[in-house]
């Protein structure tokens, strides 16, 4: 039984993972005192379940992942012994229902786990993030009952998932897909042909959600989503990319040479894949924001500990110099601001409200802060943080991807601007 499921079952039965919004009657200023007991909570307030999960993941990350981080980065590969432990901890099925073997927790719990993992290793964090917020969510939200019953138990307990949207010619223009799908002659299946690029988790995954255009004449409205399994004839991992950062996380080129899949492997409806991708990526951006805030906090903690405990110049610890203290304080404030945007997006989504702008702001600002703070952290440590013995230079390299994947910084700005324009146009 997983550690997460043990955590959940230790709590009182019926405990809500996120407080439901309360519908209050209209009140006048004069009668406001009648509702004084409704005390607002801080934005970083976590439920009891989320707090216990945070402690559990932090302990696992520091005891089990941390000793492997440097070796995984140098080898540019995830430790194979680590992956089963992620499943054993329940971290690969955070929101999946218990009847499928999942931990049956809420979205906020998933974000807490992603953030805590990134404090130690952003590579492991993104593996867990993509698996949960993209792959599992697609199955939970759009797949048929038959597909849920077939794949969710595997995704919760043993098989890594991969989300295959990007292509050489479709990055920010995500729906300029060249990968095609067509129906088999008998109409009892589909055949997929084409290539995908920049696909996270591809080297470790067994289950792939592949977006392909079934009706090219309809443009993006012909895009559909399919389940492809590792080992299907014609499906290959053509290349594993060598990257600047998050090097233990696999990023691969995939090729589909007339890969035939059964008709039941269609996710949802034909031609609705673009809608599924848009909705899922908006949620995924919150996951990337959590990865970046966790990274920034990890980089800050690593550097702050060094300058306040180890590094001395001119007879005293450099963290005692006022110029250093100003930088350290400013950096921590910006991290907390990024986390406020992150958890605002989380709770907005959990309340069932529109969260597209909140997700874009959280992802954009968190990636900016992660880049800035991890860069400063290298400088604070001097030569010791420039060499590849500690974690400082790795945090810096890992941070750069935050401004690129799941929507570049310019795409986030464009999204925010369009929504603001819609709100303020008369």
TrEMBL record:
Subcellular location: Mitochondrion matrix
This protein's pathway: Amino-acid degradation; L-isoleucine degradation; Lipid metabolism; mitochondrial fatty acid beta-oxidation
Gene3D superfamilies associated with the record: Acyl-CoA dehydrogenase/oxidase, N-terminal domain, Butyryl-CoA Dehydrogenase, subunit A, domain 2, Butyryl-CoA Dehydrogenase, subunit A, domain 3
Keyword Ribonucleoprotein appears in the UniProt entry: no
Pfam family, one: Acyl-CoA_dh_M
GO CC annotation terms, alphabetical: mitochondrial matrix
Stored InterPro entries: Acyl-CoA_DH_CS, Acyl-CoA_Oxase/DH_mid-dom, Acyl-CoA_Oxase/DH_mid-dom_sf, AcylCo_DH-like_C, AcylCo_DH/oxidase_C, AcylCoA_DH/ox_N, AcylCoA_DH/ox_N_sf, AcylCoA_DH/oxidase_NM_dom_sf
Known catalytic reactions: butanoyl-CoA + oxidized [electron-transfer flavoprotein] + H(+) = (2E)-butenoyl-CoA + reduced [electron-transfer flavoprotein]; hexanoyl-CoA + oxidized [electron-transfer flavoprotein] + H(+) = (2E)-hexenoyl-CoA + reduced [electron-transfer flavoprotein]; 2-methylbutanoyl-CoA + oxidized [electron-transfer flavoprotein] + H(+) = (2E)-2-methylbut-2-enoyl-CoA + reduced [electron-transfer flavoprotein]; 2-methylpropanoyl-CoA + oxidized [electron-transfer flavoprotein] + H(+) = 2-methylpropenoyl-CoA + reduced [electron-transfer flavoprotein]
Acyl-CoA dehydrogenase/oxidase N-terminal domain location: 47-157
Enzyme Commission numbers on file: 1.3.8.5
Keywords, alphabetical: Acetylation, FAD, Fatty acid metabolism, Flavoprotein, Lipid metabolism, Mitochondrion, Oxidoreductase, Phosphoprotein, Transit peptide
GO biological process: carboxylic acid catabolic process; fatty acid metabolic process
SUPFAM superfamilies reported in the protein's UniProt record: Acyl-CoA dehydrogenase C-terminal domain-like, Acyl-CoA dehydrogenase NM domain-like
Primary location group: mitochondrion
GO MF terms held by the record: flavin adenine dinucleotide binding; short-chain 2-methyl fatty acyl-CoA dehydrogenase activity
Family per similarity comment: Belongs to the acyl-CoA dehydrogenase family.
Protein name per UniProt: Short/branched chain specific acyl-CoA dehydrogenase, mitochondrial
Annotated source species: Ascodesmis nigricans
């Amino acid at each position: 039984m997983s550690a997460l499921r043990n955590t959940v079952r230790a709590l009182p039965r019926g405990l809500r993972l996120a407080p439901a919004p309360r519908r209050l009657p209209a009140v006048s200023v004069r009668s406001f005192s009648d509702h004084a007991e409704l005390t607002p909570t801080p934005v970083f307030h976590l439920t009891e379940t989320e707090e216990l999960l945070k402690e559990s993941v932090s302990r696992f990350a520091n005891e089990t992942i941390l000793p492997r981080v440097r070796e995984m980065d140098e080898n540019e590969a995830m430790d194979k012994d680590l992956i089963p432990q992620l499943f054993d901890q329940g971290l690969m099925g955070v929101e999946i229902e218990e009847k499928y073997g999942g931990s049956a927790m809420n979205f906020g719990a998933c974000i807490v786990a992603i953030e805590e993992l990134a404090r130690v290793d952003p590579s492991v964090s993104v593996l867990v993030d993509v698996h949960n917020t993209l792959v599992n969510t697609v199955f939970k939200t759009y797949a048929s009952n038959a597909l849920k019953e077939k794949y969710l138990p595997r995704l919760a307990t043993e098989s890594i998932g991969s989300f295959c949207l990007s292509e050489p010619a479709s990055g920010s223009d995500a729906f300029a897909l060249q990968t095609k799908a067509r129906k088999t002659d008998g109409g009892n299946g589909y055949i997929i042909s084409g290539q995908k690029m920049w696909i996270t988790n591809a080297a470790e995954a067994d289950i792939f959600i592949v977006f392909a255009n079934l009706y090219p004449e309809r443009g993006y409205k012909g895009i559909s989503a399919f389940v492809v399994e590792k080992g299907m004839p014609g499906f290959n991992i053509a290349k594993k990319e060598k990257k600047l950062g998050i090097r233990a996380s696999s990023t691969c080129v995939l090729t589909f040479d007339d890969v035939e899949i059964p008709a039941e492997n269609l996710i949802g409806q034909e031609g609705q894949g673009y809608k599924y991708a848009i909705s899922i990526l908006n949620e995924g951006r919150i996951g990337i924001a959590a990865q970046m805030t966790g990274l920034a906090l990890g980089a800050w903690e690593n550097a702050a500990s060094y300058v306040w405990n180890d590094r001395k110049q001119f007879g005293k610890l450099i963290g005692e110099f006022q110029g250093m203290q100003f930088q350290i304080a400013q950096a921590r404030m910006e991290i907390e601001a990024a986390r406020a945007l992150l958890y605002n997006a989380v709770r907005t989504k959990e309340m069932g409200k529109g969260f597209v702008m909140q997700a874009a702001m959280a992802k954009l600002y968190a990636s900016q802060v992660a880049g800035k703070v991890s860069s400063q952290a290298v400088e604070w440590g001097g030569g010791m943080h420039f060499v590849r013995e500690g974690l400082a230079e790795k945090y810096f390299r890992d941070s750069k991807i935050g401004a690129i994947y799941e929507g570049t910084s310019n795409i986030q700005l464009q999204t925010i601007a369009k929504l603001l324009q819609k709100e303020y146009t008369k």
